[in-house]
Amino acid sequence: MGNAAANAAMNSAAPPSTSDPSTPASASSAPPSSSPPPPPSVPPSAPGDYRFDTYRLVRYLESRGFTRPQAVIVMHTMNELLSAAVVRAQADMITQTDVDNETYLYKAALAELGLELKMVRQSDHASLKSELDRIAQDLATLAQRSRDDISTIKSDIQIDLNNRKSEIREDAKLMDMRLQEVNNKLTVLCSDIKTDVEMMKFDATKDVLVRLFFMAVVVLVVLTGVNSVTGWGSAAESGGSKKGSSGSGSVGSLAGKGGAGAGKAGDGDKKGGNPSGAETVIIMDAGAQKRFNL
Length: 294
Hints:
Blueprint: H1 2-12, H2 25-29, H3 54-63, H4 68-92, H5 96-230, H6 235-253, H7 260-271, E1 280-285, E2 288-293
Antiparallel strand pairs: 1-2
């Protein structure tokens, strides 16, 4: 330590000025003599007060251009500075007892802090454990409630589905019954229509036959009356009446075939030779007028 401080002091120290009044100008410019200078006039320090190699420091300063007194003064100055620094350092230092006391107090405080931390950790652990147990119990209760709700919803949905299926089946049955009723009604209506059609055909046929028969009777009655009025005396008239009777027979034979027989009877009468005494007969049949020449 003393050697390092001496080396730092030697590096920072500047060489003496050449304009020193204690030395002449020729001596300051001339190199130093090889013989050692006389010892300094300063009193030597007490043995044991120096904290570095003073001789080595003095020799080093002399090799750097210092004189012996200057080197000795620098050495003493450095020694005083080092002594003052050591004294200040020792004043700032604490004793081993203080260190032991501080160490004991630190360890006691550390042990107390560790105990408090342990108690706080145990308390927090217990509270966290109880909180976790409560949360787990709440979760179990919530899960059970959720399962119950889900089972209830499933049962409700199944009941609704079954009710809907039964309603659909009932609606299908009602629709089938209605379709069957409509089918039966259509069948009855078709049979009624067929019956009505057959009855209408029968009535129409009967009406036609009745009208034809009536027309034939009217024609026969008219022809009979005409023949009775005109007389049957002469031979020519008898021949004509024969032709007329033949015509009347033709009319009687064609009475069931319609109104064409009347036309033939008229033609027979005309051929019978009674054109001068012809008469016109009008017959109303269902709002239609029919004319006959007699």
